Amino acid sequence: MSSAEVLEQTRPKPKRRRKPKWQRMGIMGYVALGLVTFLSLFPFYWMFIVASNGTDEISKIPPTLVPGPRFFTVVS
Amino acid sequence: MSQTTVGKARASKPPSPWKPAKQPRKVNNPNAVPSLNGRWGYMFTAPFFVMFLIFGLAPIIYSIYIAFFNWDALGTQEFIGLANFNELFVDTRFWNALINTIDIWLLSTIPMLIMSIGLAAVLHNPNLRGSTFFRTILLVPNITSVLAIAIVFGQLFGRDFGMVNFVLGLFGVENIDWIQGTTSSHVAIAAMIVWRWTGYNALIFLAAMLAIPNELYESASLDGAGKFKQFIYVTLPSLRNTITFVLIVGTIGGLQVFAEPLILGGSYNGGDSGQFSTLTLFLFEQAFVAYKWGYAAAIGIMITVIVAFVSIINFFITRKIAGDGR
After folding, report:
1. Which of A24, A76, B44, B54 is the most exposed place for a label (fewest CB within 10 A)?
2. Conformation bin of residue B270: beta by default, left when phi > 0, alpha when psi is -120 to 50
């Protein structure tokens, strides 16, 4: 990384708005964050899948990945 | 005028920070509050200390007292000195639980530290879009109940229909019996801990990174340091205290892991052959299944000693690795 790029990153706020926003953020950072987001939210989604499907649905290969019709039946 | 004279008079003898300056007694003021000479402070801190003495210190001392007894649920109390500890040191279940606990702790803490520092470094970038969104998402796992998450992870790590085995199967890996194996069950438990605490620690690291002055990066880049070198020589040393904090909190929590193995195994014995029995599970089993309260208290004391010992080791290792003032 050249010093100019780092200076640009550490520049005080009023000057930064002239710069293109995507310039310094590598694609790998977004990939990593996206992966973490997926891993964080997947157990919640899985909970919903299990809640909305029948018992036989969740023990299948390949696993069911879409919510079933039973969610409100189970909740009520 | 009078102020300056007072100031000069005080200059010879500086006011003590411990004793309040003597006020001239106001004889004629009937509304004057009688001076307690700063004793109000004790009254304001008393609620905490009273509660701590009753609910914090007293049970600790009492459990130390119990540890020297053969004490069961029916009220048999017999002083046996250090026999509980002697029994503990030759108990293979205790050593098994200790090794399991340390294994789980290592498997969870090291990836968690690396991943959370990395995530914090990504989030530190001022040009990141939607940073508030990502910060929120990172904290979502931490607000869940351990029990619910342990059930979900138990399903995900199931042998026949688990999602993890399914995904691994796509890459040609045989079905792994996560719960029955020793190392695999440790990995499953560590995955739960990592999932739950990485985001939280990443936010702590992010806060510490935001406090690093930009001048350090500026001068480092003037000296020709690239981004990676800046991370090694500027960010990591500045994070030293935070790493110590996270490690010690992680040690205290990680060596007392309880709910995850309990739910995963469905019983107090930590798997069929005790392959993921942890120290706290062993304590709970001895206390409330076997009703050996004196023995359980001895285990509790040993857990405290171990946690303190590992924390001290961590403290010095972190000082060494992250550099002590270069």
Report:
1. A76
2. left
pLDDT of residue B315: 85
pTM of the model: 0.77
Is B281:B268 a contact under the CB 8 Å cutoff?
yes
The ipTM is: 0.71
Distance CA B177, CA B161 (A): 11
CB atoms within 10 A of CB B222: 11
* Residues with Cβ within 8 Å of residue B227, at least 6 apart in sequence: A1, A6
Interface of B with A in 112-141 (CB under 8 A): 118-119, 122-123, 125-129, 134, 137-138, 140-141
CA-based nearest distance A32→chain B, Å = 8
More confident residue, B35 or B282: B282
| CB contact at 8 A, B107 and B186 | yes
Report pLDDT for A58.
67
Bond from prior residue into B24 cis (ω within 30 degrees of 0): no
Q: Which two tokens stand for residue B60?
A: 């600790």
Whether pLDDT at A24 is above 60: no
CA distance A72 to chain B (A): 20
pLDDT value at B54 more than 90 = yes
pLDDT digits (tens, 9 = 90+) for B263-293: 888 888 888 888 889 999 999 999 888 888 8
Interface of B with A in 230-249 (CB under 8 A): 230
CB contact under 8 A, A25 and B129: yes
Q: Token pair for residue B154?
A: 């138990």
> Residue B4 pLDDT more than 50?
no
CB contact under 8 A, A3 and B224: yes
Structure letter (DSSP) for residue B141: G
Is residue B260 within 8 Å of B193, Cβ to Cβ? yes
Let me know the angle formed at the C-alpha of B181 by B271 and B154, rounded to the nearest 5 degrees: 65
User: B71: part of which helix (H) or strand (E)?
Assistant: strand B69-71
Find, among B326, B308, B163, the residue nearest to B248 by Cα.
B308
Beta bridge partner(s), residue B70: B78
Q: What are the φ and ψ backbone dihedral angles of B78, each rounded to 5 degrees? A: -140, 125
